[in-house]
Design goal:
- The chain is an alpha/beta fold.
- It contains 14 helices and twelve strands.
- The protein has helices at residues 17-23, 25-28, 39-59, 72-86, 100-106, 124-130, 153-169, 193-196, 245-260, 262-283, 310-319, 339-343, 348-351, 365-378; strands at residues 5-6, 66-69, 91-95, 111-114, 135-139, 177-181, 200-204, 215-219, 288-289, 300-304, 322-323, 354-358.
- Strands 2-8-7-6-5-3-4 form a seven-stranded mixed β-sheet, with helices on both faces.
- Helix 7 links the parallel strand 5 and strand 6 (177-181).
- Helix 1 (17-23) runs antiparallel to helix 9 (245-260) and helix 4 (72-86) runs parallel beside helix 5.
């Protein structure tokens, strides 16, 4: 039987056992609706409030600024639709390498795309140039899900504050908000919204050893949003519906675990990532490493094997027990090349010869050595 090596942690992480144990009572014992009035339900409400406060702590926010959602896609949709519906005549800016859950909602509104360089990083001067007096929202992902490039969010926040000051001085009342999709960043990067200058931030439990279909959107008290889901008025009336208490408890526990061990896990994973890249470059002379070398997620290795077909490579890897990806798992069924790779300037042929390996808590050097061995047998 082939060795099993999982290298697709950017797509999904296994549920942490301690997180699961904290979730379990809320499936069948403490199953009560947290909006009910009896004492058992109030106990559930207290647990939900504690989970919300725990998330707020790590984001440097207030508890009532955390809106629970069913994952990162819904949180991104709430950020984009919520702001743009509140200001329908305004304009939106988004980076060229955003996730589809930002790109597709943005397509419904007046929007412009912020270009990236060949490392997948946006230009601060381009951001400042594109923010005219009609822009109400700028959406820039913290770290890219495909190539791992980390954006200069603090600096983007400073640019936006500078524009805000200019608007105030000129009597322009339209707000200017910064939304950050942080789904891939939570395990490895600082999330403090005030340090970053962020008004809306998306997080996703399924990427941080929490339950799938769990997520949250940080919404600053200064941000005005129109609800996307209407009904009973839960979640500050921004996301109606009975709360998924087990998922919300799990999200908070996973975030707490991830951020508590962030520095230790980052150093460990960076060492493995750099080992992997060095082995790739030594073994395959023509291999191309995509994304920024310096500003890169600790767990991301994205490579192009010129002249190869990534679908064939993935089949060969899978046959030998190695699970990797050709890009975003959300777009795996699409036939067109990755918009992220094309935005970097890669040709269609190079984009179709590219693979993403993403490491996680259980990854070892032996896993990497085995993967290199299998790749060597597949790459002609």
């Amino acid at each position: 039987m082939a060795k099993i090596v999982y290298l697709d942690y950017a797509a999904a992480t296994p549920l942490d056992k301690e997180v699961l144990s904290l979730m379990q009572p809320f499936f069948s014992v403490d199953f009560f609706n947290p909006s009910a009035d009896y004492s058992a339900a109030r106990h559930v409400r207290q647990a939900l409030d504690m989970a919300r406060s725990k998330i707020a702590y790590w984001l440097g926010a207030q508890a009532n600024e955390i809106i629970f959602t069913a994952g990162g896609t819904e949180a991104n949709n709430l950020a984009i639709h919520g702001v743009m519906a509140a200001y329908p005549s305004a304009k939106l800016l988004l980076s060229a390498i955003e996730h589809e859950s930002v790109r597709q909602p943005a397509a419904r509104y007046n929007h412009q795309v912020i270009p990236v360089d060949n490392e997948g990083r946006i230009s601060l001067s381009a951001v400042e140039k594109l923010i005219d007096d009609q822009v109400v929202l700028v959406s820039v992902m913290y770290a890219n899900n495909e190539i791992g490039s980390v954006q200069p969010i603090r600096e983007v926040g400073k640019v936006i504050e500078k524009v805000r000051d200019s608007r105030r001085n000129r009597g322009i009342e339209l707000p200017l908000l910064l939304h950050v999709d942080a789904c891939q960043a939570v395990n490895y990067l600082d999330l403090h919204v005030n340090r970053l200058g962020v008004d809306l931030m998306t997080i996703n439990g399924g990427k941080i050893y929490g339950p799938k279909q769990s997520g949250a959107l940080y919404v600053s008290r200064n941000a005005k949003l129109t609800p996307v889901i209407s009904g009973g008025g839960q979640e500050r009336n921004l996301r109606s519906g009975t709360e998924n208490v087990p998922a919300d408890i799990g999200l908070a526990a996973a975030l707490d675990s991830s951020q508590s061990s962030r520095r230790e896990q980052t150093l460990k994973t960076e060492e493995l990532r750099d080992y992997f890249i060095a082995k790739l470059e030594k073994t395959f002379k023509q291999v191309i490493i995509n994304g920024s070398r310096r500003f890169r997620l600790a767990n991301n290795v994205h490579v192009t094997f010129p002249g190869q077909d990534n679908e064939s490579l993935l089949i060969g890897l899978d046959h030998n027990g190695v699970m990797a990806a050709a890009g975003s798992a959300c777009n795996a069924s699409k036939e067109e090349s990755s918009h992220v790779l094309l935005a970097l300037g890669l040709s269609d042929a190079h984009a179709r010869a590219s693979l993403r390996f993403s490491l996680g808590r259980a990854t070892t050097k032996a896993d990497i050595d085995y993967t290199i061995k299998i790749l060597s047998s597949l790459v002609s």
